Structure formats: structure tokens, C-alpha cells
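Before relying on records like the one below, remember that each one covers exactly one chain. Contacts with other chains, cofactors or solvent are not represented anywhere in the record.
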Amino acid sequence: MMFWDITAMVFAGFLFAGLAMPIKLFYKKTPKWFIPTMAGLGMLSFQILSEYTWYPTTKSNLPDGSVVVATVPKSTWFRPWSYIKPNVFQFVVLDTKNTTTISDNVKQARLYFFERRLPVQELPVLFDCQSKSQAYIQSTNASQIDVAQLDWQQLAYTDEAIGLVCGK
């Protein structure tokens, strides 16, 4: 995936440089640095565009029943434009179509952790509808797990996820 990002960024540089060439030809007093600067501007513009469109594009390609329960916007010093409007580099998706009832209060679902330029991480999770907490599990067969021994916790997205899984 990153290969295509780099390839598209290089082509954007060539495009902007190509658009600058006629200006250089017709206006003889254009400085020597004009075409390389335009190429750099094209590559930087593509990079900014791809960063801000990654989340909406990825979100629109999710299958039915997938709900975004958390987003992580980031600002970094080497992306100064992100201080104006932080862009989403990570988000958490809950699969609401494939939930399993373990007991009266406990249901199992899958969370998917998306991060830009990294593979998707899938994690099975148990949700306790009564105590409004969640626990990560290693096994996909939750019927063999002792629910009392799990590390139950509440995270920033737990309330929304429980509302979707438990139907409250």
C-alpha cells in the first residue's frame, strides 16, 4: 500500500513540475528554483490530501454491520498542518453482525483496530452488559473461558460498544 502512496506522490510532483514548465517558458524572469519548488509543493499537497482522506475512504469501505466506536486524531511536529485540524490515523471498529451470547449478561464481539499504513488488528472481546465493561480474550471459543478470571475494564469507547452489542 505504501508503494502506491509513494508512486502517486512522485507523479504528483511531476504533474506540478509539468504545469510549472509553461510558466517558465513564457516568463523568462522566473527563478531557477520555481520548477523544483512546484514539484515539492505537488508532492506535499498529495501527502496532505492522502492523510486527510484516508479515514473517510477506509470508513466508507467497511462492510455492513461495522460501526466506528473510537477515533484517534493526531497532531505531530513534522506535520504542522495537523495542528490546525488533527487528522485521524487510528480508529476502532465494532462488528455488530457477528455477536455471540455467552450468558445472560455477557456477549462476545470482534473489534478491529485500523491504523494508517499498518495491517488491521482483529481482537475478540467480551462485553458485560450489566457492569458495562469489556475484556479482551485470546481464544475465539468464549464458552471455555472463565469469565470471572478476566481483566474487565472500561475504555473510552466501551459505553458506545456496549450500547451497540447489548442493544441498550
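Helices lie at 2-26, 34-60, 158-166.
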